[in-house]
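User: Teach me something about this protein's shape.
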Amino acid sequence: MNETEVKEVTAQAEQSTTAPKQYEVGYGKPPKKTQFKPGQSGNPKGRTKGSKNGIYTYIQRELNSSITLTDGSKITKEQGFARQLTNKALRGDIQSQKLLFNIHQKGQRKDKA
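Assistant: First, the predicted structure itself:
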């Protein structure tokens, strides 16, 4: 290696240690100027009033609505569902028994927590 090559290698080494590393822009790494600032939300207005959070809301509404039985009494659909599931399980339906057992176990765990 001659003297000029040594100077070039030394200059390159100095540049790499003193110059800050370039931020790589790519997938999942947007340019720094377009990133959200600390404490800034990506959705500052939030969810609009009156909007529903999907199918869960509609299912809850349906399960809480009431039905009239043949004897004239009124119960919620959720109560009717539980009654039918329990009756099927008592008649020997294996799938209903498994489902009822799993629901019961989950309820037991929630009570203990």
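Now, about its shape. The first helix runs from residue 3 to 18. The beta strands are 66-68, 74-76. If you'd like, I can walk through any region in more detail.
User: That's plenty for now, thanks!
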